[in-house]
Amino acid sequence: MSLIAAKIALTPTLMWAVSAASRRWGSLVGGLLSGLPLTSAPISIYLALEQGESFAAEAAIGSVEGLGAVTLCYLAYALCAPRMGPVASLCAALSAFVLSGIVLHGLVRPGLWLATAIDVPAMALVVALCPRAADPDAPRRRPRPPRWDMPARLAAATALVLMVSGLAPTLGSGLSGLLAPIPIISWPLIAFARFQDGVRASLDVVRGSAQGAFGVLAFYVCIHLLLGRTDTITAYAVSIALSAACVLPWLFVGRRVRAG
């Protein structure tokens, strides 16, 4: 099965699961799950299998740079959402992604470790700017979502996946890596949360996505260091495990905060 065919089947399933988790446990958990490398990891695996391990390892550097652009996109939304309407704040966030991507990848090219040093404090700042609701698990009275809600989410996420999958193989390792961490699942989740549940819910998604980005960063750094030094299966297994290990503690931290 080709990557595009796999993503047509996989992306709606992941989007449905994350959306269902968001409805069941709140927007913060949905954002945290959407921040995992649910789509970027398959792209990296595809690059390793089709273009070679060295190509995928170099693409990981571009992905770390791209993750900085994604984080600055979240930062722009966190700053604009409380002060602007939904369309304006979403456009500002996407503009921040494009501009920071051009600067970080096209002009500065900071490399793996400098990009990591930029990403970590930026992600921490996004988390700080999106404080948790007093009780995110408290039941909310919400109107039942319209019938078109879930199909629209699935279509939006799948369309973005197909766009990235179609462009990445032709752009080289740097630009392919830059496209890989685009938050294909979290962007639609943020938009739908904003339009349906307001600013607070969308900021919960952003916070969870920024927390999940620590795991994405760990995944790409590990991939760059391991590919070519160990077999492909081991490299990706260790990288995915490390990514999960960086994300899961956020759930326990949240529970301790609520318990206190």
UniProtKB/TrEMBL annotation:
Keywords: Membrane, Transmembrane, Transmembrane helix. It comes from the Bacteria. The chain crosses the membrane at residues 59-80, 87-106, 112-130, 151-168, 174-193, 205-227, 233-253. The keyword Transmembrane applies. The keyword ATP-binding does not apply. This is Permeases of the major facilitator superfamily. It comes from Methylobacterium pseudosasicola.
